[in-house]
Amino acid sequence: MLENHDLDMVIRKFGEDISFRNFTVKEVSKIEHCFFCNENYKHLALKDNVSLEELSHYPLLLLNQNSYERRILDNDFKKQNIKLEPIMDFTYHAPILFLAKLGLGIGYSLKETILYELDNNLLYLINVNDISSINNIGVIYNPKYLSSAANKLLSMIN
Predict the structure, then answer these.
(1) How far from the centroid of its chain's Cα atoms is residue 56's Cα?
(2) pTM
């Protein structure tokens, strides 16, 4: 839709490969994803590093395969020839958080969405070094085709 000029800009997540041909990319923020658990799996959170191989033997609660985060995670597992088989996958983060708090599995979500739970020891962060956990949020646009409203929004973002 950007190529056809049906949209002025797109705000989306992307990894380090920020090459969108013929478009300008303005990085707005970095976001971090993480694995987390409750008391039931706290022994994993106490380790310095949990491998993807070890993690694959636990019940994982993940976003569905159509999500950007899941595609990146699937790729990280594939690089190590590990099959990623969550017990459940979801279209948004809230049920992952809810079920992980109940101890029904290990969640994977935006770190920013679980800060309260981490700070209050309701959930525990699992250190997994073999994942691409940091991504970008940015604005993608063609400066030649920005409407005045889109220009105004872009200046506010800057």
Answers:
(1) 18
(2) 0.81
Which distant-in-sequence residues (6+ apart) come within 8 Å of 81 by Cβ?
none
Spatial CA neighbour of 78 closest among 45, 53, 54, 100: 53
CA 59 from chain centre, in angstroms, equals: 18
Residue pLDDT, tens place only, 6-50? 899 998 887 766 667 788 888 888 889 999 999 999 999 999 999
> 4 — phi, psi (to 5°)?
-85, 0
| CATH code for residues 31-138 | 3.40.190.10
Q: What digits encode the pLDDT tens for the residues 70-107?
A: 998 999 999 999 999 999 999 999 999 999 999 999 99
The domain segmentation of the chain, as residue ranges, is 31-138
